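From the methods appendix. Each design record in this collection lists the tokenized structure first, followed by the designed amino acid sequence. Records were kept in a plain field format so they could be parsed without special tools. The example shown here is representative of the layout used throughout.

RECORD:
FOLD TOKENS (168 positions):
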């Protein structure tokens, strides 16, 4: 898509309404193909107080894994990090861990002037995770595939409890 016209702006507004309406649990990202539109667009909102960010024609240019980070401190003590589980608005009540890059360099367009210009930016932490999750959506991949290919456990939420899903 070269020009961001009124049709694209309307789609993004509709996506924002859908994302904001998700509250159990709150949605943090939404790709256009999740609402039945085959365009390379996604939006993110990492927290309820965050402003929604729009990404049009996104491309991940570079990723940085934690072990690649020059800021990583070497410690002899292994610290247990809590496992962060991903979920998805398209697959409600299913959760699983996915190993993702800690930082991503993204090339994209957004609705900020000039809308015809391509922007580049580094995103890290939870934003980087959401971006990778939404990029997977745009490429036809859901997080459960990533969990399984990484040989991790999937869970189903039932009345607030996480129950292991046995895979055949």
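DESIGN:
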């Amino acid at each position: 898509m070269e020009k961001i016209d009124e049709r694209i702006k309307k789609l993004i507004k509709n996506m924002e309404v859908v994302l904001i309406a998700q509250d159990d649990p709150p949605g943090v990202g939404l790709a256009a193909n999740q609402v039945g539109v085959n365009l390379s667009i996604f939006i993110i909102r990492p927290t309820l107080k965050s402003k929604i960010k729009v990404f049009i024609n996104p491309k991940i240019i570079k990723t940085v894994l934690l072990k690649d980070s020059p800021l990583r401190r070497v410690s002899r003590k292994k610290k247990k990090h809590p496992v962060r589980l991903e979920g998805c608005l398209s697959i409600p009540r299913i959760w699983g861990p996915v190993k993702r890059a800690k930082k991503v360099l993204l090339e994209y367009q957004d609705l900020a002037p000039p809308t015809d210009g391509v922007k580049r930016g580094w995103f890290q932490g939870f934003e980087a995770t959401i971006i990778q999750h939404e990029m997977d959506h745009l490429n036809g991949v859901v997080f459960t595939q990533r969990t399984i290919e990484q040989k991790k456990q999937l869970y189903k939420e039932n009345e607030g409890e996480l129950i292991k899903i046995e895979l055949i």
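APPENDIX NOTE: The first helix runs from residue 6 to 21.
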